[in-house]
Amino acid sequence: MDFNASLRKAVKTGTVLLGRNKTQECIEEGKAKLVVVAENSPESVKNLVKETDIPVYVYEGSSVQLGKACGMPYVVSALAVVEPGESDILNAARV
Asked: Strand 56-59 to strand 15-18: parallel, antiparallel, or no bridges (unpaired)?
């Protein structure tokens, strides 16, 4: 599975919320099915899902690279997948 391709497809065809604050809100509301955090994210971002059952994928790249993988021209330290759309991104979860 190519994670970047799956991520881009999820962003285009599903519901993906970008950014730490939106991700945190999504977790608190119980809507997130997968959380992705950049490898260089601060521990506070990585700890967003510590006490939940939500799967986490640590993206092997910087927040700049994660933003580019989403097709966005800005930094993305965390994102929440609410609906994967036509993507198989939910199969990528690992802690």
From this structure: unpaired
